[in-house]
Amino acid sequence: MTYILLYSTLLSLISHSLALFDPITIGAGAAALIGVWKSDFLKDQTYCRYAECCNDRSIPANVYELKTKLANLYGQHIVKQQLIAALASHLEKGRETRKSLVISFHGTPGTGKNMVADMIANSIYAEGLRSQFVHKFMGRAGYSTGGNPASYGAHIHHTVIKALRLCPRSLFIFDEVDKMPKGAFEALTSIVDYRSIANGVDFSQAIYIFLSNTAGVEISTHLGNLLVKGILRENTKLGDFESILERAAYNLDGGLSKSSLIEAHAIDHFIPFLPLEKSHIYKCLNAEFARYFMYPEVKVLDEIVESVVTFDPIHGVFAKSGCKKLDKKVAVIAYQHRRS
């Protein structure tokens, strides 16, 4: 409505000024105005100042902000190293990209996959997760394993194409990929594979993130073996895990099983979220309590860890559910503290 009103006002001002100019000047001025309008310059300077548009104002792509936020991600040095570089190179101003960015997150529950995906959305888009250019698909909620993969694939394909027509710089987050049926992403391969523009749609600028618990056990087993060999956790690197993740995603049940996305090498990065150890759990607890301006003694933290956290039976050092259950436990303690 504001957009239309501004345009009408401009036209009215032009019509009231016709008497001041000769016909040649009027024609040149009108042509210039139409040219500016078609270039969307006027829209950027008016409507887009108050509404979300597919431009730099609404999509600041603040990778530095993301890097700052990742300081609150514990035990995931590989994620920090690889993710910032992958996003920064894809979002770099003035750099032409031939392909969309496709990243697959893997790890056991509670290691930070969803948190990082949300951080990415909140750093790239001014409206964050509320942005109309951020699209999140939930595995169990909308794509049960008992359904028809072809219909799921058609729905995903339609949603993605529609979103890219609206804004080529869209973000697509697929959560619980391991709960989606095999074949659900087949229609995506032609969209994310090498090509820039087809049928008037720019495919190259989008970002796709897959979140999966697949290979969580394999990551834990391999990390445990590396630790036994004397390799420090902080010295592990992406190359220690990436081929393991790719094989597991392709061979195990889930939406990426036997997927042409993997066969076509359309997924650019398989990123492991390492299982958390007890020291990381304590950091998560302290961060949760800090949200309530509470700084409990160590014995309080010990009680929570002993009652909530269980560790893997093989190595005995990796928390099975990571930091996943801690926020609600801390919320209860904070509530009781306020009521006392």
TrEMBL record:
Signal peptide: 1-19
GO terms, molecular function: ATP binding; ATP hydrolysis activity
Keyword Signal: yes
Cross-referenced Pfam families: Torsin (PF06309)
Gene Ontology cellular component list: cytoplasm; endomembrane system
InterPro entries to which the protein is assigned, alphabetical: ClpA/B (IPR001270), P-loop_NTPase (IPR027417), Torsin (IPR010448)
Database matches in SUPFAM superfamilies: P-loop containing nucleoside triphosphate hydrolases (SSF52540)
GO biological process: cellular response to misfolded protein
Keywords, sorted A to Z: Signal
Family: Belongs to the ClpA/ClpB family. Torsin subfamily.
Protein name: AAA+ ATPase domain-containing protein
